[in-house]
Amino acid sequence: MIRVAVQPAAIDVAGALAAHDAGGHGASASFIGRVRGDDGLTELFLDHHPVLTAGGLEELATQAAARWKLGALTLIHRIGAMAPGDTIVLVLASSPHRAEALAACEYLIDRLKTDVMLWKRESFADGRVSWVEQREGDHARAGRWM
Amino acid sequence: MLQISYFAWVRERMGVAEEVIALPAGAATVGDLIAWLAARDERGARAFAEPQRIRAALGGAMVGAGASIGDAREIALFPPVTGG
Fold first, then answer.
1. Which residues of A touch B81 (CB under 8 A)?
2. Which residues of chain B does A121 touch, with a Cβ-Cβ cutoff of 8 Å?
3. How many CB atoms sit inside 10 A of residue A99's CB?
4. Distance (Å, rounded) from C-alpha B44 to C-alpha B15?
5. Neighbour tally for B74: CB within 10 Å
6. Which CATH number fits the domain that encloses residue B27?
7. Nearest CA in chain B to A75
8. Which of A8, A110, A122, B9 is the most exposed place for a label (fewest CB within 10 A)?
9. Which CATH superfamily is domain A2-143 in?
10. In this predicted model, what pLDDT tens digit does every residue of B13-49 receive, in sequence order?
11. Chain B touched by A102 (CB under 8 Å)
12. Best residue in B7, B10, B18, B82 to probe A by mutation, most A CBs within 10 Å?
């Protein structure tokens, strides 16, 4: 079962895990990305493309499911305005054994940082607003999976 | 006609989320279009001052600056992505 979502609503991690695990799996790996409140950050805004963002996530999910033996895959990315502590992204990958689940989970978070149309904008308590720059290290990590 | 959509700081600098243009003569590739937009007016000059920082999606697929626009009807122009 593959579930992919792009949503402005808060991500219900417990609910998503319950739905994901309904079939029962030998091994489940998870990645939860949250908004950090570093440097007085007050808001993180995620810009997205109305069609291609979801399409990009679906393509990554399809690639991961084809590459590893996954019993279930959940990929949920939040968009819009978020506060420190909010969940930005949830990746759940399950397989009969741990190696596939862990690898698929890492692959999905690495690749979505470089391949999916999403842009972060940070607002700070002192009034600064800035778009986040892509990091070289993210490309290096994503490139390991080619 | 070609619909162009802009995202993140490219949209902010252009001042619009999208526009429809007649593809200018001589603009065969994505890179040509970006150069034309940069030369067209001040907001274009600001948005596309560093073309190496611009990414593009043509008809739903990510493409490089050398990609031919052909008879595509939609193009998205945006900065490198920063999700996750």
1. 113-119, 134
2. 8
3. 13
4. 10
5. 15
6. 3.10.20.30
7. B84
8. A8
9. Molybdopterin biosynthesis MoaE subunit (3.90.1170.40)
10. 999 999 999 999 989 999 999 999 999 999 999 999 9
11. no
12. B82
